[in-house]
Each structure stands twice: as structure tokens, then as C-alpha cells.
Amino acid sequence: MNTGAGGIPVDALNKMEAAFELADLAAQITKHDQAYHRDDSPEISDADYDALRARNGAIEARFPGLVRADSPSKRVGSTAAAGFTKIRHAQAMLSLGNVFSEDELADFLTGIRRFLKELADDETIPLEMVAEPKIDGLSLSLRYESGALVSAATRGDGAVGEDVTKNVMTFKDLVTRLPGEAPDLVEIRGEVYLSKADFQALNVRQAEAGIKIFANPRNAAAGSLRQLDTSITAGRPLKMFAYAWGATSEPIAENHWQFLDQLKTWGFQTNDRTRLCAGLEDMLEAYTAVNDARASLDYDIDGMVYKVNRIDWQERLGFVSRAPRWAVAYKFPAEQAVTVVNDIEIQVGRTGSLTPVAKLEPVTVGGVVVSNATLHNEDEIARKDVRVGDTVVVQRAGDVIPQVVEVVADKRPKNTQAFQMPDTCPECGSPAVRSEGEVARRCTGGYTCPAQAAEKLKHFVSRGAFDIEGLGAKHIADFFEDGIIETEADIFRLGEKRDALLEREGWGDLSVDNLIAAIDARRAVPLERLIYALGIRQVGQATARLLAKTYGSLSAWMAAMIAAKDPESEAYQELTNVDGIGPSVAEDVAAYFAHARNLGVLEDLGTQLDVANFETPDETDSPVAGKTIVFTGSLERMSRGEAKAKAEALGAKVAGSVSKKTDYVVVGADAGSKAKKAAEVGVDVLSEDEWRTLIGEA
Ligand code: IVH
Description:
It is a single chain. By secondary structure, the protein is of the alpha+beta class. It folds into six domains: about 5-75, Helix hairpin bin (Helix Hairpins); about 115-330, D-amino Acid Aminotransferase, Chain A, domain 1 (2-Layer Sandwich), CATH 3.30.470; about 335-420, CATH 2.40.50.140; about 445-520, DNA polymerase, domain 1; about 525-610, 5' to 3' exonuclease, C-terminal subdomain (DNA polymerase, domain 1), CATH 1.10.150.20; about 630-695, 3-Layer(aba) Sandwich (Rossmann fold). It has a five-stranded mixed beta sheet with strand order 2-13-10-3-9. A five-stranded antiparallel beta sheet has the order 16-15-14-17-18. Strands 5-4-7-8 form a four-stranded antiparallel beta sheet. The longest helix is centred in the first third of the chain and has 24 residues, at about 15-40. The radius of gyration is 28 Å and the shape is globular. The structure holds 2-(butylsulfanyl)adenosine (IVH).
């Protein structure tokens, strides 16, 4: 394992070997630093560790030009990022999809019935749902081993959260031990919140002390939990409603309703407005009842959550991207207020889209002061006919950007003028054009437009992307404006700009060290995150994952995308054949690669980063892992959706049409041309039963 300290004598290394070894040494030393300083569990002896550092120093002395930005010689001791230790959730913490109307809620139920084929075939089979208030706090995962609480973590990015165990220990109602016979492992999830009364009392205290006032109970709860000084948390009466489980060593319950009972038996607080619903009618009743009671509750809620009661059905339904198919949130109507439009400005987005934004006379909407509201686009602003000087209704729903709902017509002053969208970009002067079929008018300046370039960089470090601790959108914008960074790859060379950083207001040795450590901590990046971070049009997290899954490695993906420039190419065919990627996305991806600047940046990033190949779910013993499957015709035992989800869970890829790359075609009844094509190409054709036998379901 210790490839660094042995091997070729330093004098005999050539430049290439030296560069590779320095990269390897940087990674190894960082890993051992973390094991030692952060996790208190060193994996090698001090002497072996010193030997690694010595070899690193010797190679650098011989090749000073190869000293890396993240070289261990540039730092001492711990590289643990500032702040909290990270905890990887044994099972990811996901979010919820939203519905906004009764119709959408009905569609959600229909979708479930369609997925669980037996429910589609027989409408009389009941589909029980549990309705729970959606608590507006922050989610927490408590890990119990043999009944004892061992750690607590925030949601973080869903996969990795922050270790807040010490903070949680200050909760008055914390369950530190599950009474009775407890599973070997169970993660209990819930929402941490501050009651409205405690929030107000806290703000009074804060105001008296002349310190920060919190905007709402949720921010106050988050700020109180995430305190490095746990004595501050101790002074804040945080509570938790438990509502879900994560990883478990054994099944806990057959249905969610029963699980909630188990939670109560264990001593957790569950929400007493939770209802078991027989169908849509009950669900809507529960919604209205809770919405009516909303103001009188002592905690903030922002909607209802509906969950399929049967756990076996939840398991079959599984997840789409980051949200379960078996649960959904139905948000309460947004809170509204009336104010005046002082100005209308144009913001230029990451992909060049021009968004009109109303600058408002500041107004409080649902406890938060709002001074900007989006007007979406040219058509929307024209439809609502919003003008400078108008009195408007604004609304805010959850974390969504506030919107202008409508103009109060009889309050319009005289001599106002309809708003005109500019036909040049207000930031760079390039023509702003609206292509046919698009709602957005876009700046054509690309990276030459400073606003677009800055927005792309902000996206690059945003949450689902590189998410570098301590490097927020504001820093990026400032660094970009002052020329400290120009491209994405420059972020990873900030270590070389130490002096320039130190000259800036608000930056000192410690904060710069922390920033550089946080950047270094992100050099190892999963392929799907990198793809998402690039900010290619229409490539969100789900599509990025799909691309990573299809191509596996950065080099394979890049090669395929470069080849896909030609719509006649096989690479283009393969790309559009990925289930979930159509010609329009394919065009946007190809357009990104057609740009020399982008290729340069990607290559540059390749030298700065350690991009991990896509990890197929750990189903290596699954007979279909890595295989490409096409389903065709109607299956009898499963809906198409469930068959696809199942195949993917077993590590297979599901494609939309048959090609040479297809491994199996599974044919149901009335299969048409695809079955024929399979025979022509010579691909294995399976019946539904043969497929079930193959995956061990028969
Ligand atoms: S269940 C896999 N139930 O809402 C499903 N979430 O918008 C996990 N939330 O991240 C979530 N009340 O922080 C669930 N009764 C409830 C909830 C709830 C609030 C939060 C939770 C989640 C977010 C999604």
C-alpha cells in the first residue's frame, strides 16, 4: 500500500513519474492526516508517516516545478476542514417532491397505482396513505447501535452531513437509549425545530444583547444546532419530531402507521396531527384541517407530507433521483403581501437567460423581509403588465424566490410605461436573442459576458456541485471580479494566490488556511458531481448522474461527447439512446463540448482533480450488473416503471431502443419492432418469466 516511501530512488525518477508520485503522496498524506487528527485513529506508524513526508520533500526538492497546490509540505498537521466533522449517512437522506394542487396530488396517487401494477389492474385494492404535517425545521439523523445513541448528523448534501452529536446531547427530550429490545442498528430521522414562542423569546434576548436577530424559527433552529460551542446550543430549547428511518439492521414495522407507534414507544415525539387516510378525500380533509389550524400551532409548518403506508410498497416504489416515489409534499398556499415596484432590473443567469427582477419597497412576507421578486421572463412580465411604480401582490413559498403575483390595477399611477425587454445584454452589450420555442431571451456573449461567467462559477461551487466549505457565491463573484480567478480550474489554484487573498478585507492566515484545506478536500470528486458542476444547459443533477452512469469515467465521457458533436455519429445515437436523454439535452451537451474554452477548462480540471469513476450500486454479484437492458411490450407482473427501477437497482442500465450495445431485450405481450430488431442484431431475448428467473425473483 505504501507506494510512496519505497520504490525508485528519487534521483532516478523522471518528471512524469515524479508528478504521479507527488499526486499519490499528497492523497496518502492527507488521508493519514485526517485519520490521525480528525478521526483519532491512525492507520500507520509515526515512522512510516514521517518517511512519506520525507520522500515528498525530497521529490519536491529535485523537481521544484512540480510542487502541487495541495502539497503536504505547504501545511502542517491536520487538514480537517474548519468546523464540523463529517458523517456519512448509512443511508442517504433524501428530499421530497412537491405537488401544488389537488389535481397534482391525485396524479401522484395515480402514478403510484400505475407503478404497482396490481393496483392498476384492480382499483378496489386500497392504497392507504399517512398524512403528516410538514415541519419547517431542519432534518436530523440519529444513529442507534444496540439501542444506544452513537451519533447525530445533519442532512448536509444528503450523503454526508455534519456531526452534531455533542450539540444534540443538549436536547431536553433526547432519546439516548431505546428501551426494551432494540435493533443492532437503526437511524431515526426527524425534524429539529424551535417553537414559535421560544423563537420569539430568543430574538428578544438577541436584540437586548445587540446581536443578530433570526428571520424565522427555521433559521434560528439551524443556527442553534450548528454551533461549534455547544453551550450556545444548550441555551436554545430545540425539539424534534421523528418521522422516518434510514438504515436498519432489521425491519422495524410493516407499515408507517405502526412505525410511528414504535417511535412513541421508544420515547420519540411524533406529530399528533398525523392521520391515516383511506384515499384522496381523506388526504384533502387532513390538508384543510391542518392548514386551518396552522396559525394556532406552536411550531411552523409549510405543508403536508403524504406517505404510502405499506413498507413493502414503499420499497418497491423506491426513489427517483433524490426523492421517494412513495411520498410527496403538498405545500400550503404561499404567504402574500402588497408593496410597490421601485424599479425593474435585468439579471443575467448562468446560461445567459435575462430575468426581469422587481426591486420592491421592502415588505415582510410570512416573517421574512422581501425586497426583490422575480418576474420570470418576457412573456410573464407582459402578461401581468408589471410596470415601475405599480402596486403589486408578492408571495413567498418556502425557500422559493419571491414572485410577483399580480398588479393592483386601480393603484397604478399616471404616466407609467409598459416594460420593454432589452435586446442587448445589460452586462456585456452582446445581442440578446430569443430562439423560437423558448421563453427566455439570452445573452449571446457566453463566457465573454462577465455576468454569465460569474454565474457559471457560482454554480460550480454550489451545493450539489463542488460545495466548497467557506467559498460561497459572494466570494466567487468578488474573486472573479478582481481577477483572482477566471476559470473553474483557477479555484483549485487559489493556494498559489495566498498573498493576494491575505490582502483582502476579512481574510487572515487562519481563514485562508481553512479555505485552502476546504478546496483540497474537494479535489477528489465523483464524476456525476463534476458533470453537474459544469453547468451545461439542461444538465441537472439527475441528468448528470445518468451521464456518469452511462459513461463511467471522465475520459470515456469526454471522448464520447466530443464524438457526439456529429448527429450522424454512433456516439450521438448512443447518447440519445440513454433512457432519459433526448435530442434536446444531447444538443446542449454537444454544444458545450464544441466550445474550445470548455474543453480547455475540462482538461485543466482533470489535472487538478481526482475524478472518481461512477460507482454502480454495489450489486456486483447481481447477474445483470453493468448490462444494458431494453424492456418492450407490456409486462404482466410489473409495470414498466417498476421493472426499470428494479433493473437499475441491480446495477443494470436501461435503454430505450435496441442496439449492438444491448445485452438483453425483455419482451412482454404485443412487443413490436424492438423484439424484431433484437432478433436481427442477435441480442438475447427474454420473456418476462425468464427475466424474473435471471434476477432471482421467480
Ligand atoms: S419524510 C424520504 N416527513 O421536508 C422522505 N420529511 O422537503 C424523507 N420534513 O428533507 C422525508 N416534515 O427535512 C418527512 N413529516 C415529514 C417532514 C419532512 C418535514 C422535511 C425533511 C425533508 C424535507 C423535504
